[in-house]
Amino acid sequence: MTDSIAEKIALEHPTDTAYRAAEFIETYTGRKFYSLEPSAKDVSVIDIAHALSNQCRYSGHTESFYSTAQHCCILASYAENVMGGSALDCLQILMHDAAEAYLVDIARPIKQHMPDFRKWDKKIQFTIREWLGLADVAIPPWQDELDTRIIVDERAQVMADSDNDWGMSGVEPLHVKVEPWPSKMAEKQFLFRYAAYMDAVFGKPAYLDEKWGVTGLFVKCHTNGGEIVDVLEVDFLGKVAKIKLRSDTGMLVRDTAAGKFPRPAWKWMHGEFGLVIPEKVA
Fold first, then answer.
1. pLDDT at residue 107 in the model
2. Cβ atoms 188, 50 nearer than 8 A
3. Cα–Cα dist 139/109, whole Å
4. Which strands sit side by side in the sheet containing 226-228, from one edge to the other?
5. Domain span at 265
6. What is the C-alpha separation between 48 and 70, in angstroms, rounded?
7. Residue 5 counted as domain residue
8. Positive or negative, the Cα torsion across 167, 68, 183, 55?
9. Hey, which residues does 220 pair with through a beta bridge?
10. Has residue 219 got a pLDDT over 90?
11. Closest Cα partner for 121 from 133, 132, 134, 108?
């Protein structure tokens, strides 16, 4: 015998229906990502940073928007500046929630009862580690501890003041400041840290943004064999770049809805990219 109207309705309306969605999600860069059968070739840090910067922690029940991307940045900064961690340590904890870009997050009280979901999450996470070149690198033993301890800081600073017992008795906070960023700032900060850590670990650029003022940013696209100068950002490892649009006459196409000073319209280009350093920059 059911105890509530909600339980009666649930029994009368089974979850299985004739409707079936596509087997993939479409990412920010326009790719298909098969979350239950992930492949490293479909991963891009641009997609990861964008998605995590638009996802709010604690199922959205924060006093103001606080993104997963910022959470990752705070932990990476803590590992670097407080613990004195290596660039590899910082890279790993920056990317520790990257799977949520493709699977989203589920609140811990629910996730603990979802073994299949946790398996999918781990599968995506290790696919991303393979993509990063970290498949054979051990996860820092302190990573889960930091990810738990920061909950105490976050609860005190972004959640309502309540007497609810979260089961965190005796957990020491990290004593970090949490001042929520807008999603665009979180996205940029995530990408900036990713680029710095990847360069330090592997000795070559993995991501570049035009706004960083890289003089003479030329990218060679091996797909069409040409050199592209109209690059807004490029993910070398993820094989995707944001390219300004030009008309058939060579003029930049402008986004007329972009305010007083219309910015260039753009498109995603997928393929093999390499950085070209010109011999002489005017």
1. 80
2. no
3. 24
4. 226-228, 218-221, 273-276
5. 205-276
6. 12
7. no
8. negative
9. 227, 274
10. no
11. 108
Residue 4 lies in a domain: no
Q: Is the dihedral of CA 230, 55, 194, 192 positive or negative?
A: positive
Q: Is residue 164 part of a domain?
A: yes
48 shares its domain with 177? yes
pLDDT tens figures, 1-32: 446 777 776 667 666 666 666 799 999 999 99
- Mean per-residue pLDDT of the chain: 89
Residue 102's alpha-carbon distances to 35, 52, 119, 220, in angstroms, are: 6, 9, 14, 29
Q: At what angle do helices 183-202 and 45-53 cross, to 10 degrees?
A: 150
Minimum mean pLDDT among 181-190, 205-214, 233-242: which range?
A: 205-214
Last-in-domain residue among 161, 181, 201: 201
pTM tops 0.85, yes or no: yes
Measured CA to CA, the distance from residue 122 to residue 280 in angstroms comes to 47
Establish if 7 belongs to a structural domain.
no
Give yes or no: residues 210 and 229 share one domain. yes
Exposed (0-12), middle (13-18) or buried (19+): which is 117, by Cβ within 10 Å? Answer: middle
Quote the number of domains for the chain: 2
Please tell me whether residues 172 and 215 are part of one structural domain: no
Are residue 80 and residue 138 in the same domain, yes or no?
A: yes
